[in-house]
């Protein structure tokens, strides 16, 4: 880690937080930025806040943290190893820091870093390196230095750490963030994200990248939580257009690829109709990348000559379904089913009824590319019951076909 000022009095250290209680007071966008790295570090995170963003709520629903839906009270830091005061109320943040001081718990104060007993550096990762930069209360400089070093590491030459140039990109960039691992976003996508004034982010976008944004970047939570609360597509389109027309460069950060069941083309059409310039940056599609990371190739010589990617957002026979399940049942190749966990029994039944053998191999990859990834292997006649027994939850990619039964690496 680097310290940017000769008179900076901070002592840099790496904390081992695995299994240790970390308390976050506040559940807004600041918490949303900070939580993914704490979760990724294995901390036992507890969030105390009357309300949260949809993305923070989704982390709680997924069991990644414990959410206490109430206001902060003195004593909430008992047993904590680390604390973060991230509310929009300075008095509450001051009270949290005061308790932390009495309890000898290091505490970050998001609204006034110099008043906390710890500060959060500008952080980045590169091939096993965890890089953090502090600059004595100049967060923009920390971010610029970090980005310069990371770019130098990626290109093979450590570049200078000057401030980013002032030229701004116009309009909106639809950026595919890949399947979840922040290392799997494209180079161009990461570069445009670093220049954003506003980031409109999905729940499935690589969350840790939000923590690398400068503090003045506005993050709009457009979480689309399956079968739960969701941002209206019209509201998302309006956020893109209104911010772009206000002269801001907007990055729409999406999971996977914007044009593979990501509604990216709907957003492009809305922007074009409003006269807003749009740049599209394809992403690594989860339909193929997630199985690959889990050791399941969607094609293999002599095994599968076809791949069909199917949306499971509506069941077979639904009036809005555009899928010919009878044709899929007759195929011999690979079916990749997205958004299919909730209705898996119906999809399996439709394929079996239309000719797929009962012993057809199936692989389900949950939380693909993430720390919590797990794989369930089964057969078409048993997968629905086994997935329910195993507690499989979205997001998950389901691969159906002979490739799912190939030898496991």
Structure, explained:
The chain has 409 residues and is of the alpha/beta class. It contains 11 helices and 18 strands. The strands form 4 sheets. It has a 5-stranded parallel sheet with strand order 4-3-2-5-6, sandwiched between helices. The longest helix is centred in the middle third of the chain and has 17 residues. The two termini are 36 Å apart.
What is the topological layout?
Elements: E1 2-3, E2 21-25, H1 29-40, E3 44-48, H2 54-61, E4 66-68, E5 82-85, H3 90-103, E6 106-109, E7 122-126, E8 129-134, H4 139-155, E9 172-176, H5 187-193, E10 198-201, E11 218-221, H6 233-245, E12 250-254, H7 264-273, E13 278-281, H8 286-293, E14 307-311, H9 325-330, E15 334-338, H10 344-353, E16 361-366, E17 374-379, H11 383-390, E18 396-400
Parallel strand pairs: 1-8, 2-3, 2-5, 3-4, 5-6, 9-12, 9-13, 10-11, 10-12, 14-15
Antiparallel strand pairs: 7-8, 15-18, 16-17, 16-18
């Amino acid at each position: 880690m680097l310290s940017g000022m000769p008179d900076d009095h901070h002592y840099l250290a790496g904390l081992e937080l695995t299994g240790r209680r970390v308390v976050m007071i506040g559940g807004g966008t600041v918490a949303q930025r900070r939580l993914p790295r704490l979760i990724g570090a294995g901390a036992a995170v507890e969030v105390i806040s009357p309300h949260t963003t949809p993305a923070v709520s989704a982390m709680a629903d997924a069991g990644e943290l414990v959410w206490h839906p109430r206001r902060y009270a003195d004593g909430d830091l008992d047993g904590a190893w680390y604390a973060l005061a991230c509310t929009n109320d300075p008095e509450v943040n001051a009270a949290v820091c005061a308790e932390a001081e009495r309890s000898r718990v290091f505490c970050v104060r998001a609204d006034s870093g110099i008043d906390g007993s710890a500060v959060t550096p500008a952080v980045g990762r590169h091939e096993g390196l965890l890089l953090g930069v502090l600059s004595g209360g100049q967060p923009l400089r920390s971010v610029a230095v970090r980005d310069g070093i990371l770019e130098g590491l990626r290109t093979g030459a450590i570049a200078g750490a000057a401030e980013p140039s002032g030229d701004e990109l116009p309009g909106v960039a639809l950026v595919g963030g890949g399947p979840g691992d922040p290392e799997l976003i494209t180079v161009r996508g990461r570069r445009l994200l670093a220049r954003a004034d506003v980031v409109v982010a999905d729940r499935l976008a690589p969350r840790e990248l939000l923590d690398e944004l400068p503090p003045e970047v506005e993050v709009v939570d457009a979480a689309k939580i399956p079968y739960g609360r969701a941002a209206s597509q019209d509201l998302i389109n309006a956020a893109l257009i209104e911010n772009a027309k206000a002269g801001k460069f907007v990055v729409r950060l999406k999971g996977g690829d914007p044009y593979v069941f990501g509604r990216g083309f709907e957003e492009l059409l809305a922007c074009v109709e409003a006269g807003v310039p749009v740049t599209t940056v394809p992403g690594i599609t989860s339909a193929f990348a997630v199985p690959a990371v889990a050791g399941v190739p969607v094609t293999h010589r002599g095994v599968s000559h076809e791949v069909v990617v199917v949306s499971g957002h509506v069941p077979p026979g639904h009036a809005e379904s555009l899928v010919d399940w009878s044709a899929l049942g007759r195929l011999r190749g690979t079916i990749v089913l997205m958004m299919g966990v909730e209705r898996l029994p119906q999809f399996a039944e439709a394929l079996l009824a239309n000719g797929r053998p009962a012993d057809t191999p199936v692989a389900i990859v949950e939380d693909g590319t993430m720390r919590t990834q797990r794989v369930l292997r089964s057969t078409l006649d048993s997968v629905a019951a086994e997935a329910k027994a195993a507690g499989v939850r979205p997001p998950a990619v389901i691969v159906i076909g002979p490739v799912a039964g190939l030898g496991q690496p």
